[in-house]
Structure formats: structure tokens, C-alpha cells
Write a structure and sequence with these properties.
9-stranded parallel β-sheet; alpha/beta; about 15% strand; TIM Barrel; two-stranded antiparallel ribbon
Amino acid sequence: MTNATSILETLPPPIRTQADVRTLPRELPSLRIGSVPIGFPVVQAALSGYSDGPMRIVARRLGAPYTLAEVMIDKFILELKNRTRTRHHLFIADEEHPVGGQLMGSNPDDFGPAAQKLVSAGFDVIDINFGCPVKTAVGGCRGGYHLSQPEVALEIVARVRDAVPSAIPVTLKMRRGIDDSAESRDRFYRILDGAFARGAAAITVHGRTVEQKYVGPSNWDFLREVKQHAGSRTIIGSGDVFTAQACLDMLTYTGVDGVSAARGAIGNPWIFQQARALVAGHPLPEPSLTEQRRVMVMQCELCALNSDASAVNSTMRMFGIKFARLHPQHAEVRNAFATARNLDEWRGVLDRWYSSE
């Protein structure tokens, strides 16, 4: 195992400014996940409650080379019927590929059959969630809880790898441990190395512990350490990438093979377009109010293809609150979206606050 102290002693201070990054090499490697070519190494993470089909399609249209569907409980997938009300969970548009499906659960027996169902639905990659820190997941022995039990975690990896065709990559999402104890660190590396040994094609590592949830900074020094430990094996970094510049800073500072934009992509699908522009040396494209309106209308129309008006309003009200962060009068716009009781009122927010010229 890599010695953390010796690595950390050699690390330069974190890169956080455009000027710092431009003094360093800017050639980015093309990301590949097993047999699936991704290309540009900034992708959209699985986002519980958010990364449904419409969000993923919008992200792809605005430069994301790869997206992950919101995490799905294995038992939910196994019991899911092809009904109008629920079929959107497994719906994949042609323009989405490559797209990943993420599984979370507690019983290793359920992971293989659930993974097979995701493959049958058309997902190109199967991702296993060992990182979710929310109380319901950890309390149900799911998500980040598995970082406390390497044997069970690795059995899950093996079950999924054995269950799906060899051409379908299996990946993991992990946090850096349950907490910052030496025992937690040792378990992290046992799972990381064991997963690769069992056929995992890539592992996404979030720089916070499960105990931290989303409080405090993501530890990019740890991500750099993990990448140095992993060598040629594919590591994707996650945590504190709320801007396009931060995505490139993480790539440069940590040496990871790719970056997974999570909360930074909710209500800001332009983050992928902006990251591509920065790499190309172009000015940072800031979305005008007209452009923001265009994309929100696009996402709303995509939602309407598979949901009724009430569900569309609920979804777009939630997303509108996030999009509002980019508006100059963000507090007023956020409140307007939050109180929209139907789609007509939601559209009224666009008419009042977003130029359509």
C-alpha cells in the first residue's frame, strides 16, 4: 500500500486559480471505462433524485460525454414492472449512449439479477454505489455502509461482474472511508485493490468520508494519493467540483483519469461545455438568461414525454430552484420557482424573469 505520509510531504499546494492551471500541461488524456470509450474526461455523476433521463440528455447536449442515472435500489429494480407510471426509470434515449446505471443495496444476492436487468434495459456500464452517506442508506446497510465490510463489498463486486456480459464494464463509487481512522483507510484500500482484482474497470473516489457527508472540503490530496497507488488503473475523482475550472484543477492537481461532476452539474449543465472551452483555450461561455430559458424549456419538454403534468411541474420546480442560482436575482427567482403550483405558473416564472429574445 502507498505510504500516505511520504506522498503528502511531496504535494504542492492546491491549485485553485486559472492562472495556476495555465502554467501546467493542459493536454488531457481521453477517458476510457473498460471497453467503452468516453473521450473528454469530465462526466456527470449519478445524482439521487435528479439525474433522470431529461437531465442526462440535457447534459449530453451541452457537452457531457457520459452520464449516470440516479442510483436505484436493487430490490426496486427487481420488482419494477413495465408500467406507464414507472417505466421512465429504465428508459434510455438513443442519444444518451454511453450511459451508466448505478445500483445500491445490502444483500449481495440481489445485485447480480438487478445488474442483468439494467443491462437488458440498455445501460452500457454498471456502477455499484459504495459511497452514499445519507442516513437511510447507511442505516439500511447500503451505500457507504459497505466501506465498513470489505468482504461483503467485494462479494457484491464479484456477483455483478459474473452476472453481466464481459463487454459491459463494472465500476464502483466510493468515499475515502467511513471516517479518518487507520482502520477505515485500510478497508478502503482492501476494497479498491480487491475490486480491480475482481474485474472492476474504473473506480470513482469522492474525497470526503461517509461520516462527513457533505460537510467540509473534499480531500484532493487523498485523491492524488489514490491515483498514485492505482497506477494505470482508472480512477475518477469527485468532490468540490462546482465549476468548470474546478474540474480542470482536480485533473491537474490529482492526476486522476477523469472527474465526476455531481452537485455542480445540477441546474448548471453548462459546466461540461465550459470545461471543454477552457481546455481549448477559449473564453468561458456564460449562459445568458435567454440560454438559461432555452435549456429549462428543453428539459421540461423532455420530462413531458414520459410524465404527466403534475409530475413534470414537481420535477421542474425542483430544477428551477437549482437553475435560479445562475440568475442575477437568484433569491427572488428561487422563491418564484418554489411556489409554482402548476406548469402554467412555472412558465410564468420564465416569462417574468428570463428574456426570450
